[in-house]
Amino acid sequence: MKIALAQLNYHIGNFDSNTEKIINTIHAARGKGADLVVFAELCISGYPARDFLEFKEFIGLCEQSAQTIATACTGIACIIGIPKHNTNRSKGGKDLHNSAYFIADGKVQQVVNKALLPNYDVFDEYRYFEPETEFTCVEYKGHRIALTICEDLWNDIENPLYVTRPMDKLMEQKPDVMINIAASPFAYNHDEERIAILSDNAKRYNLPLFYVNHVGAQTEIIFDGGSLVFDNQGKVIDELPYFKEVITYYDLSDDSQVTPQQPVTLMPERQSDIEQIHQGLILGIRDYFYKSGFKQAILGLSGGIDSAVVCALAAEALGAENVMAVLLPSKYSTGHSITDAEDLVENLGCMSETVEIKSITDAFETALHPQFEGLPFNIAEENLQARSRAVVLMAMCNKFGYILLNTSNKSEAAVGYGTLYGDMCGGISVLGDVYKTQVYQLANYINRDKEIIPQNSIVKPPSAELRPDQKDSDSLPDYNTLDTILVEYIEHRLSSGEIIQQGYDEATVRRVIKLVNTAEHKRYQTPPILRVSPKAFGMGRRMPIVGKYLS
Amino acid sequence: MKIALAQLNYHIGNFDSNTEKIINTIHAARGKGADLVVFAELCISGYPARDFLEFKEFIGLCEQSAQTIATACTGIACIIGIPKHNTNRSKGGKDLHNSAYFIADGKVQQVVNKALLPNYDVFDEYRYFEPETEFTCVEYKGHRIALTICEDLWNDIENPLYVTRPMDKLMEQKPDVMINIAASPFAYNHDEERIAILSDNAKRYNLPLFYVNHVGAQTEIIFDGGSLVFDNQGKVIDELPYFKEVITYYDLSDDSQVTPQQPVTLMPERQSDIEQIHQGLILGIRDYFYKSGFKQAILGLSGGIDSAVVCALAAEALGAENVMAVLLPSKYSTGHSITDAEDLVENLGCMSETVEIKSITDAFETALHPQFEGLPFNIAEENLQARSRAVVLMAMCNKFGYILLNTSNKSEAAVGYGTLYGDMCGGISVLGDVYKTQVYQLANYINRDKEIIPQNSIVKPPSAELRPDQKDSDSLPDYNTLDTILVEYIEHRLSSGEIIQQGYDEATVRRVIKLVNTAEHKRYQTPPILRVSPKAFGMGRRMPIVGKYLS
């Protein structure tokens, strides 16, 4: 049996485009002599379709797409992922299953439903789907396929999250191969995890395993591809490319030996976290614009490292000619900030404009003079600058059809070091899941072949430049310390006590954690953040706003 | 046995305050001779504690609070709700149970875990909790109590959401009374639903039922109280007040007859939706400020009905002396808008300031002249006005410590008729779950005894006043039509085709639904919205941003 794996980029709710892509791939695979082509989990609808799944019409359109695909699927079989009505609804349960259709001879031959439904981090599958409790292998071309969906293989032996393990039941039917269709989002450490847990399954059940993932971004969620093929010893036979679409072919012999039909170059070593984050962010920006029907980005360029990195990433994702960098100097901007920003624009070849904001902030201060008279300069005047810049950038969006890129990093977003409706604005946040220390690594990576980001933007002390001689270090610990505390609190959910026990200064730890918790109301209103870590702000981290607990 | 029901207002993560309130209530109930006092679901932590539940320290503090309460609980028993470690974790499952502790003689005597975990709308209980599958009654003072938690009784006979029904299993142990502790959020139609489904349980199992709910708001989620007592025929014996804290007492005889120990006045008729919404919003505003540690609100007063209604509600919630209304006229503001706003300020007696924004928008237009020269006036200039107002209001927040109240209504929020970082700003949205047609009803209700909101604000055609002679009806259908289409789409999840079949104009329906879907990126960044309907924007409605499906 010849098996094709289709690692493709879908678009949520774009039935025409998804269906066409699937049918074209079926035709291509048949042309190459494949007997079976495997698509990813919920490829018909795109993932995550969220509450679109609560619309009956949406589910009807999914079924209609599946029938169109089935009609095209003759002389070859395929496996597609689809949200499907729970036909056993009379005894209770949610309306839908997260299903796989096995299609052959122009018809849906068999339906397999997902049993283990992830409902943590960014996942909400219990919101929509009823878990399956019965399991049947798919028989095809003399093979017995144990077909499962993503999380169904994702139950750690050491620390099980679910009480059942679908493969244990499927093994009673003596399958000779496993196929798993997935929607497994990118995080910089997730590729190793995926390989380890899937390899463990191949070994445990002594079966070869074909695993197909999505690639492409859906708003904040990035899928990195990296689909996998294992032999029955759990050895990786093929690892598909990351961050791009690809179709690959394998021969599965009668005794379940797998032979790739194209040259395979297994990676000699894993990509670094920063290389992965770099590729993920570029795909994230590109798909956000492409799938929203926009082409051009705008951002404020301060001369600092964050906006410089965002500008460079946007230029790579969209083409420098589609990036408008706006310099918005105030009376507190230093001369080197402006020249650093200008150097970057020249290095990238992107568009640029300069809009001075002094006359604008003066107008605000004059208008507010009756109310503010006699009161000292404080955060109100600082924020006026950040907000005036945002209003200018948004006016240019409204006039010319740009999308504003947010340039806040994760460290700032964590401690609320940013102005709501000011530098926290944007259609999408590029660095909101990248700690400041990682932003430096990204800048150096972007400069790996030649200086794109001016060295001065990298080496100078970070500053918001909202008052004379301001530096981030005036009010925050150094970023190495800050980021370590933040990782322990946000990623590892340690308490302040536990972090202090690691040797960090008590006052610093308590202050940082208080800042994180009291900035919750700000983060609630920020743009979607491209997710590159195992714990990003947004749907994957849901915190109360008026809660009192400060750890 | 004498049973006390404690319908209280908790604060998420405020262990000191919640524990003290519970202990004081135990002492008070013991003083009144009660044998058992019943508190609400997850009262120890507050509800919903969301991802605080992922912090081990948080769960430890819950347990510590429970032990403190247990120590105080002698000479009386109590039932409290608490998130508790899943001690059976070795066989798999989530870390926590949503539990009830039965406490007597200074110790936790029995633990009951929730079986049916709501994971729809605003609920995410599968994110944290493992469902229970085994059930045991609580024995106390010669009674056998079937103790369940909220959703455990919430499984419709006609259309079951869950495959099991905990009470069916508990009935095998022949209980003589049911107690249900709940965290059932307010929606204007939810009181009737609650009474019907609980009455149905009392009848079906032929047992009296004591039901205790939360009261008070946690950011956007409002709990309305309305705890209930039923006899074994499903007849309401007592309905506790809505929107306030109360403790009530009942005698439960050996043959399970229930006698209230205080005068009971059953409501002759249900409160209207608008009365309920009015009370809910006032409680929502008040608790948002109180629990955040703020006292004073600010809002922009346009002379229109939305900001007038928000101002009146804020004055009632916080006291007029704590409300700052700012008039922000532009060159497009009509004279009557200013006088209408001034009349309202006088009627309420709140603070007010006037800040002209013409010089500010002029400064923006001058600064952007090089970029905008020769291009026609459009949405860019319209939004400059809305955003300039927001910057002024936020500057006053930063200077004086106000929280900005958002004044957008649900109809506007739905179709994206509002400016991001402009009139869509605020700490909390008061009317974001109230359709425009309901805003009119609210205004009339506020004026029920005397004219508070100037009649002119109610009767004049709605306008954003962002260009000369602008009216909402220039670009939107009339609000009766708009709101009906929105309810069908948002609340009932009908497709455009189904709505058109009801007789609505096809072009209008398609345009409205397209507006709703393309405004998703705006709503993502708006403040939390006080939830008063069964389907509010926010955590209860999770939509993709880059999705293509338009219904």
- Protein structure class of chain A: alpha/beta
From the coordinates shown, what is the CATH architecture of the largest domain in chain A? Answer: 4-Layer Sandwich
Give the mean pLDDT of chain A. 96
Q: What fraction of the residues of chain A are assigned to beta strands by DSSP?
A: 15-25%
Count of structural domains of chain A: 2
The global form of chain A is elongated
Rg of chain A (CA only): 26 Å
What's the tally of helices of chain A? 17
Largest interface: A-B, 98 and 98 residues
Protein name (chains A, B): Glutamine-dependent NAD(+) synthetase
GO cellular component, one term (chains A, B): cytoplasm
Function (chains A, B): Catalyzes the ATP-dependent amidation of deamido-NAD to form NAD. Uses L-glutamine as a nitrogen source.
InterPro entries (chains A, B): C-N_Hydrolase, C-N_Hydrolase_sf, Gln-dep_NAD_synthase, NAD/GMP_synthase, NAD_synthase, Nitrilase/CN_hydratase_CS, Rossmann-like_a/b/a_fold
